[in-house]
Fold each of these.
Amino acid sequence: MSQRTLVLLKPDAVQRGLVGEIIGRIERKAGWTISALELRTLDRAVLEQHYAEHVGRDFYEPLVTFMSSGPVVSLVVEGERVIEGVRQLAGPTDPIKAPSGSIRGDFGTITRENLIHASDSEESAEREIKIFFPGLS
Ligand code: CMP
């Protein structure tokens, strides 16, 4: 089942020079392709849309501050079961609980600064792709 998903390499990943490492892991999965890619610093309006479901949580404001603290790489990845697959590559939200071999498990320690975001469902993917790549059909 071919799908597409929205992936963000967060400011910690860009600042630490892990973009190539993370995108390399995605590129090495058979048949997955990158169909859009951009480096930019996100403004609050975009982040409020993207993280709308988290408004009011105690981690929301620090998350928005962190996510706007430096450039982010946003990309759309397409391919077989890519939604579940990228989340598997990423590992669980808390990097200390994430297994070795996953992106968060290998490189992260802090839940907020967990290197990568990946859409969690087809509905989320379509909503998020519209936010980050409004021109993409
Ligand atoms: P992400 O996949 O982008 O979705 C929501 C983000 O909020 C999550 O990754 C983390 O960066 C952050 N987050 C989620 N839970 C917590 C938490 N308990 N404390 C701090 N940050 C969190």
Amino acid sequence: MRKAGAFILGTGRALPSRVLTNQDLERMVDTSDEWITQRTGIKERRIVGEGESNSRLATTAARRALSRAGVSPEDLDLIIVATLTPDYLMPSVAVLVQQALGARRAGAFDLSATCSGFLYALSIADKFVREDPKRKILVIGSEVLSHKTNWEDRTTCVLFGDGAGAAVVTGSPDGERGVLSTHLHADGSLWHLLTLKGCGSLYPPCDPRIPREDYFIRMQGREVFKQAVRAMEAVAMEALETAGVAPGELDLLIPHQANIRIIEYLRERLELPPEKVFVNIHRYGNTSAASIPIALDEALEEGRLKEGDLVLMVSFGGGFTWASVLMRW
Ligand code: COA
């Protein structure tokens, strides 16, 4: 097996305190707790309130990760924030986090790869630390999807939530523990199935010719579902086959949390028992780029990952993009 690269020294997460339940949604659109639970597995999600923003969530998650890692902000070489819902189009969330942390030495940029953003960002960090294992890189997935959600569209508004997760990455201590492989994919031919057009340069704000719905997330759910199950299985198998590992040798699978039925499908295809698959979608819904780092942080806190464990992270999102990262913990 290839030598390990990026090693995670510490993780953190931040969730807004406001909880929006399925019962709350029943009062907002024509839906039911039963429908949402059966079709998605979601029971509640977190929504930002006054004074909360993407960069604040990202900074809080980062502080927790740095503290657990025992790394000071001045020691960071690079900050990468995966997001599709930045505070502003300019500057990036990453520089706001850099400033808030006082990470003066760090370069900083945002990365746009939708729900695969965290795994894309982790794979970039992996390349940087393979070049120089002493580097310290902060990798964050952070989203405020609630501000890009059409609260009149029941087919999307029940799905998403806000939150952030962070990981402090450095080189493998021994060549055994850390990232073993990364696989990134995209298919732009299907971009139109999942979009957030408004406020892009083709869709300027307040243009009366642009339909209101285009300022929010739009999705052809059934089509996205079909692509997601296919792509996530393929990229999971790609990771396992490249590493010469059988699915049964995995200790934990952390899939992107978009729909419990997608997660279940993947679990069955890999023939994994439920205890080897991390699920928190019932609490947070789909938090896009934040979903995997939040799940990783919770998995650690719950003692679901211990030294030497083999963990596979798998994502799928708009674009389409999909990715996997295989790690020895
Ligand atoms: N409450 C009640 N009914 C709803 C509803 C809601 N919130 N949303 C849709 N419906 C209705 C539809 O109008 C449709 O009614 P009809 O049969 O009378 O036309 C019916 O439920 C079935 O809709 P459909 O879209 O086929 O449901 P589904 O089983 O595909 O589930 C999703 C919808 C969105 C949950 C599912 O397609 C999905 O999870 N897709 C992938 C999402 C994803 O992964 N997205 C992001 C990638 S990161």
